[in-house]
Amino acid sequence: MQTLTLANLLKEIGEELKISVYTGKSLVEKIEIKTERLSRPGLFLSGYEEHFDARRIQLIGNTEYSYLMSLSQDAMCDKLMKLVKKGVPAIIFTRGNRPPECLKKINTETCVLMTPEYTPYFQRRLYDYLCYKLAPFITVHGTMVDVYDLGILITGESGTGKSECALDLVSQGGALIADDVVKLIEYPKGSIMGTNPQKEDVFQNLIEIRGIGIIDVFSTFGIGAVKDRKKLDLVIELLQVKKAYTMERLVLEREKTEFLGIKIDKFTLPVIPGKHLSAIIKTLALDFRLKLYGYNASKRVEEYLKRQKND
Question: What does pTM read for this prediction?
Answer without folding.
Answer: 0.84
